[in-house]
Amino acid sequence: VAEAPSQSVSELLVKWRAGDQEALQVLIPLVYSELRRIAQHHLRQERPDHTLQSTALVHEAYMRLMKQAPSGIENRAHFLAVASRLMRQILVDHARGHRAAKRGGGYKLELTEARSSQPGLNLDLVDLDDALNELALLDAQQARIVELKFFGGLSIEDTAQVIGVSRTSVKREWATARAWLRREMGKLEKR
Amino acid sequence: MTPQEWSRIKEVLEVVLELEPSARERYLDNACASREVNRVEIETLVRSYEESGTFLEGPVDIASMELLQEPVLLPWAGRRLA
Q1: Do B63 and A59 touch (CB under 8 A)?
Q2: Which helix H or strand E contains A132, and what residues bound it?
Q3: Are A58 and A35 in contact (CB under 8 A)?
């Protein structure tokens, strides 16, 4: 993510909190564009309904953001953390709702993991959410790294900035988190 | 597992994952003995990592969800957005 907008989002948030309503007018499109970047990150294939899905996801994220005391957002790093959390909530809520709706039919929804080199390897978002909550009990910061990188679609670099640690730390935490989550989700599947 | 146990396991696991497979055994012999880390824990985690492929490396495929068009959750879905 470019450096210039990062400063302006932080500055605008400060101005907005200080009561500058014009700052909000400038802020909204920037917030939308960040949310759109995250939504588009999760769109893998070209399909005609993609624009709608991406737009719907951005709208839902924006609505939830506005509900959850947006004036409490301190800077861009904080915003990215909140946006990643929101994306996780929305995607998991939808997956959970779909799973509940389909339970009667004996059909378990599994979301296809993008860019998978192993066809048929599916990712169950509800199981991932449960496993991530377990990981947060062991290491809250490590769970945040997963949330930012996976649900927020942030790079190693941006994740390091948001958390305030080195890129090397993020890479190590990411590697051990993947090992742990993978093992944990294997246990969940066997239940 | 406690947070303290996980922290100790992570210290060893981080190193193991960066080592060549041939060097791992020897490192584990020393590290697990001196740090009171359960070797079986580390070994199952290394196996999970080896099998993980692209696990969590790609985005969530929201295109396959087809959930964002549910009218109850998203009243604006399907409408033309100005």
Answers
A1: no
A2: helix A125-138
A3: yes
pTM metric for this prediction: 0.79
CA distance A77 to A100: 34
Contact: A175, B74; criterion CB under 8 Å:
no
What is the enclosing helix (H) or strand (E) of A112?
Answer: strand A111-112
CA distance A146 to chain B (A): 9
State how far the alpha carbon of B59 is from the alpha carbons of A43, A129, A141, B42, in Å: 8, 15, 21, 28
State pLDDT tens for residues A34-87. 888 888 887 765 555 566 667 778 888 888 887 775 566 778 888 888 889 988
Q: Which residues of B touch A62 (CB under 8 A)?
A: none
pLDDT for B77: 46
Q: A183 in contact with B at a CB cutoff of 8 Å?
A: yes
Is residue A125 within 8 Å of residue A187, measured between CB atoms?
no
| Rounded Cα distance, A63 and A60, in Å | 5
Residues in B closer than 8 angstroms to A49, CB to CB, are: 63, 69
Is B30 in the A-facing interface, judged by CB distances under 8 Å? no
**Residue A17 Rama label (left phi>0; alpha psi -120 to 50; beta):** alpha
